[in-house]
Amino acid sequence: MENPHRITPWILVAVLLSACASTGKVPHPGEQRLTPAQLNVQSSKELLAAGNPELALRKVLQALELNPRLPSAYEVAARIYAQTQQPKLAEKYYRRAAELDPDNAGIRIEYGTFLCRQGRYREGEEQFLTVTQNSDPHIKAIAYADAGLCALRVPDPDAAAQYFRAALEAEPEMPVPYYQLARINYAKGRYPQAQRHLQSYLSYGRPTPKVLLLGVRIAQARGDRTSFAWYAKQLESEFPDSEEARLVTRLSIEPPPQARQTAASNSASGGLEDLSGEEWILARDPAHYTIQLIRSLNPQSLDYLRRHLNSPPPLATYRSRGGGKQWHALIYGNFPDRRSAEAALSALPARIRQAGAVIRPFSSIQRAILAIP
Predict the structure, then answer these.
(1) Which domain holds residue 293?
(2) Which end of the chain is more exposed for a tag (fewer CB within 10 A), N or C?
């Protein structure tokens, strides 16, 4: 990315690094002529960028006929196969590219990204860690940052945090690791640390809707009304048409933890009106999970199930539209990952599970709530 955003999304990072690593420098006119095979590779890249993968593949295969040992041709072919959902061929060509040019950081990073997206997280991390031996601090930082993104897919937030910190040791002004560390600390309830990392991100990176919404959530969790108002104003003024801006209009500063605990204990003998509602749901991290216990056209069904549920709060209700009708749903819990939600679901009484309990990400429920006019 352009300064100050020196780290780019996974695949773009790999493309840029590959170009640099393949040539070592940008040649002056007349200093270096491309071979016919290299010209075909260049043409293939342009066709792929223009949205023509079929012709791009034809060009790169012609390059390989001319030079069967050209690493960049294997890399571009692998990229095409990955984009056209042919993972076996993509892996075959990525592996060959890495064999022919083992010191090419761009190929290693792109190969690692591919493996992570295939769910082969450890193999992907191995590719990134190979690049961390590079003497260039920026390339090393990119490799550590991508290893962290790969670890988040496991999910293994502790390992991810270690990789992001290593990326910042190599390049302290890289924005993405600060944002990811802010997310991790927010999810773990370490709000002051999350706030510090988010402020560091804003010192080096450009605000985006997701970044500003995270700022709103951190301020909300801390009860910091001033920061809450600032982040919300920035989001609504800079990105008024974003989903995050729509979401923030439904959020507010929650009461102190003690007041929330009192309300939760009071709800033990109350009805659905005592439970958390859509505002609470909209304030959750979209990446977290919950258990939807029941969805019914009749809200009284929710109350019946709620009175027979011995699980602790948080419980919440929300409305959604489907088939031209308004549905009511009861959810239970706020879990940082799917495995935690699955463990909680298995611990519920059989009659509750049999009533149709399912695990859902908060993001899908939030979209359903916001879809109601």
Answers:
(1) 271-370
(2) C
Range 2-7 contact pairs with CB under 8 angstroms and sequence separation of 24 or more: 4/173, 4/175, 4/204, 4/205, 5/175, 5/204, 5/205, 5/206, 6/138, 6/171, 6/173, 6/174, 7/141, 7/142, 7/145, 7/174, 7/175, 7/176
What confidence tens digit (pLDDT) does each residue in 235-287 have?
999 999 998 888 888 887 754 444 344 344 434 334 444 456 777 787 788 88
**What's this model's pTM, rounded to 2 decimal places?**
0.61
Distance CA 339, CA 320 (A): 26
Average pLDDT for residues 85-114, to the nearest whole number? Answer: 93
Q: Going by DSSP bridges, is the β-strand pair 358-361/325-335 parallel, antiparallel, or unpaired? A: unpaired
Model confidence band, residue 17 (pLDDT cutoffs 50, 70, 90): very low
Cis peptide bond prior to 314, omega within 30° of 0: yes
Rounded Cα gap, residues 186 and 159, in angstroms = 16
What is the pLDDT of the chain when averaged over all its residues? 81
Q: What are phi and psi of 293, to 5 degrees?
A: -80, -40
DSSP-derived secondary structure for 188-229: TT-HHHHHHHHHHHHHHS---HHHHHHHHHHHHHHT-HHHHH
How big is the chain, counted in residues?
373
35 and 160 both lie in a single domain: yes
Nearest to 171 by CA among 217, 204, 147, 148: 204
List, in sequence order, every residue forming a beta bridge with 331; answer none if it has no partner: 292, 316
Q: Per residue in 128-144, pLDDT tens?
A: 999 988 889 999 999 99
Q: Are the beta carbons of 175 and 204 closer than 8 angstroms?
A: yes
Of the residues 161, 182, 203, the one at which a domain ends: 182
Q: Cβ of 262: how many Cβ atoms within 10 Å?
A: 12
Residue 144 lies in a domain: yes
* 3-state class (DSSP) for residue 249: coil
Number of domains forming the structure of the chain: 3
Strands (E), the chain: 289-296, 315-322, 325-335, 358-361
